[in-house]
Amino acid sequence: MEVKEKSKKRELIKTIAIVFLAVLLVLTFFSNTIMNRSLAEVSTTLVTSGTINARIRGSGTVSANESYEVVLDQTREVRSVCVKVGDTVNQGDLLFVLGDVESQELKDAQEQLQTLNINYQKQLLELSKGYAADDLTVKTLREDLEKAQADRDANAVTDAEISYAKGDLAAAKTELSQLELMLSELNDALADDPALQEAQAAVTEWTQKVSTAQTAVDTYQQQLDELESGGSVDLDRQIADAKTALEKAKNTWRSDWLAYKSDLGALIEAVKAKGYGVTSIDTATDTPQEISGNNQVYIEAYLTQYVTTPPTTGGGTGEEGGTTRTAVPASDPSEGDLQDYQTAYDALLAAQNDVASKQTAYDRLVADQDIASGSASEQRRAIQSKLDDAESELRSAQRELRDAEDTLEDAEADNADLKAQINLYEAAQREQTARITTLTENVTALQEKKTAYDAAVDTIAEKEQELEKALNGADIDKQLDNLGLQATRLQIQKQQELVDKYTSESIGTEITANVSGTISAINVSAGKETTPGQAMAVIEVVDRGYTIKIPVTNEQAQQVKVGDTAEVSNYYWGNSVTATLEGITADPDKPGQGRLLVFRVTGDIEAGANISLSIGQRSANYDAIIPKSALREDTNGSFVLVVTSKSTPLGNRYTATRVDVQVLAEDDTNAAVSGLSSNNDYVITTSSKPLEAGELVRMVDGA
Predict the structure, then answer these.
(1) Nearest residue to 213 via CA among 367, 348, 388
(2) What is the 3-state secondary structure (H, E, C) of 463-520?
(3) What angle do CA 357, 359, 364 make, to 5 degrees?
(4) Cα gap 343→569, rounded to integer Å
(5) Which residue from 429, 483, 536, 656 has the fewest beta carbons nearer than 10 Å?
């Protein structure tokens, strides 16, 4: 019985062990499968050896081979900066405008010279007082010297004062120029209003018709009065008189035409040049040509604008002269020509209107010849009928004239704002003209004082020399005193030489470019002073070509040679840009560790452009070549993830292991590195999710 129970226990233990092992095997299988599914799936490639045709890539900023610095050796005020960074300038172009005053260095030297002169004069006068009692010549010379000094002090004026006064005058003239230009534009806008032009033409037309109708009324009324007084209507005599008057008016018109047609033609061309819609007149013929109503509107607008405030002749500005011609360009008519144009226009228009009036009167008399036939009562009825028609025509013309005048008034009202602006600018123009007159008088007065000042200075120098000679007596005291004077004079001479040096080195108010190129830097601004020796601006001399510098490693520098051509990959603003390697130099930022490839850049490019280059190295054999997709980089440098394997009871386990590498060369797809073994290491090229060194991975099926 006991044996049987023991046998049952052994069977139970055996069964439990079998079940436990089975469960353990099942759990082990599923756990391995679940873990593998959670790991990143990677693709790998074997590190190989071989040849690589690598390319070096880099980017940089294009700079000119040569730059020119605009430098002043004296302190000057900058009034205006006429260029900006990036501008292209040609030799002679204006860069800066300086204040029209001497430099601080010149001022200091002049003040020191003035101090020495004053000390010398005091010393000379003090010495002369001791000898004046015994020497009448010394006394006279001393008095002359004191008088010349008084004249100098009374007329003391500096070049800076005159310069500023001239600057104020020039600025005032410039402002007047701008005012006159604005007035010209406003008057052009006013005269070029179509509604205003039509209204003016209508007023002119109906004024003439009213005058003609009034003449007819007066003529018929005069004929009625003659009949009422017992007289008779002698139309033959009136027609003859009217014809004579018409012929006389035509002769006057033809005479005026021959005298003034050239001026009229020039006037019309001047009006046309201003953009008005005037039509030309044939001035080659001796037959008088009518001035149309449209032409009258434009001509009168032009003459109103330019004859009332005519430009001065001669153009330009002078230090003493009058205002500059600014209302119209220098090529426009002079004031004298404009006055001739006005005279010609007035005479020809008056002659034209006189002929038209007399022609109308003559035609009316010819048409009324039948009035003279019949009895007195029949004549009276006929004249009364004509008078009634003329009065009706007059009333109609007067109504039309009033309507035209109302239309003109409305058109002028529409231009009220424009006229108000014109009035303001005309007031400012008058004020500025008066100011220019005052400033001109001020400049003249200062120059007169400067002339008297210079004359007094010359007299002082002359009297000083004469007095110094007079004091150079035979006794020892006079000779010693004169030695002191000579020492002071020697100091004055040396200081004068310094002043002359600064004066000769001084430049005008304008600084122009000495070379052609592109402005790459501006180190001054308007209102500030220049620093002696410091570049005011830098000009890249584009004619000397461009360069770009690319930093590389020492190993990369060994794989290229001077003369190699690089490819430009990201410059889209110019065509046919090429880069040629013309030098390999040390990299100052990485001494001993890096080099600079210096490329000469040619083609359609500008200084300051940023471009990327790639250049092929000489092909070489390398022990470890990997795809570029396997390369990774962080703050510690370049590295790859290598797959390492470990056997376990459940199979092989694969781990991504970091290996730091140095890139020796690369082409578009592969890279040669150090730190790996060919035909031994497998590097990860892709993964199904981000990887960190030390993580377990699973291999792509079939890898």
Answers:
(1) 388
(2) HHHHHHHHHCCCCHHHHHHHHHHHHHHHHHHHHHHHHHHHHHHCCCCEEECCCCEEEE
(3) 100
(4) 73
(5) 483
Does the structure show a pLDDT above 80 at 562? yes
**Over pLDDT 70: what percentage of the chain?**
71
Q: Rounded mean pLDDT of the chain?
A: 75
Determine the 3-state secondary structure of 290 from DSSP.
coil
Q: Which two tokens stand for residue 374?
A: 């019949």
- pTM for the structure as a whole: 0.34
**pLDDT exceeds cutoff 80 at 507:** no
User: How sure is the predictor about 639, in pLDDT bands with cuts at 50, 70 and 90?
Assistant: very high
Pairing of strands 594-602, 578-586: antiparallel
Give the three-class secondary structure for 551. Answer: strand
Residues 89-120 as b/e (b if ≥16 CB within 10 A, e otherwise) read beeeeebbbbbbbbbebbbebbeebeebbeeb
- Of 277 and 432, the one with more pLDDT: 432
CA distance 451 to 413: 56
Q: How confident is the model at residue 194 (pLDDT cuts 50, 70, 90)?
A: low
Give CA–CA dist 643/691, Å, rounded. 12
* pLDDT score of 142 more than 70: no
Calpha distance 307→562 (Å, rounded): 74
Listed residue (689, 606, 610, 694) closest to 644, CA to CA = 694
- Please state, for a pLDDT cut of 90, what percent of the chain lies above it: 2
Residues 74/532, Cβ–Cβ less than 8 Å: yes
Contact of 485 with 127, CB cutoff 8 Å: yes
Tell me the C-alpha to C-alpha distance, in Å, between residue 324 and each of 172, 444, 447: 11, 18, 21
Matching residue, tokens 């109308």: 360
pLDDT confidence tier of residue 490, bands split at 50, 70 and 90: low
DSSP-H helix ranges across 328-475? 335-367, 376-414, 416-471
How many whole angstroms separate alpha carbon 559 and alpha carbon 425? 75
Question: Looking at residues 41-64, what average pLDDT do you find?
Answer: 81
Residue with tokens 């690319």: 550
Determine the Cα–Cα distance for residues 69 and 231; give it in Å rounded to an integer.
Answer: 103
Q: Are 306 and 419 in contact (CB under 8 A)?
A: no
Residue-wise pLDDT tens digits, 389-421 = 878 888 888 888 888 788 877 776 666 677 777
Whole-angstrom Cα distance, residue 12 to residue 603? 95
| 69 DSSP β-pair partners | 538
Cβ atoms of 253 and 359 within 8 Å: the answer is no
Q: Which of 416, 396, 425, 203 minimizes the C-alpha distance to 297? A: 203
- As a whole number of angstroms, the distance between CA 281 and CA 269 comes to 10
Give 169's pLDDT tier (boundaries 50, 70, 90): confident
Of 648, 650, 629, 651, the residue nearest 640 (C-alpha): 629
Sheet holding 48-52, edge to edge: 48-52, 620-627, 670-674, 662-666
Helix (H) or strand (E) holding 305: helix 293-308
Residue 312 has pLDDT above 60, yes or no: no
Q: Exposed, middle or buried: residue 512 (CB in 10 Å: 0-12, 13-18, 19+)?
A: middle
pLDDT of residue 556 exceeding 80, the answer is: no
3-state secondary structure 182-238: HHHHHHHHHHCCHHHHHHHHHHHHHHHHHHHHHHHHHHHHHHHHHHHCCCCCCHHHH
Beta bridge partners of 57: 614
Find where tokens 């209107």 sit: 353
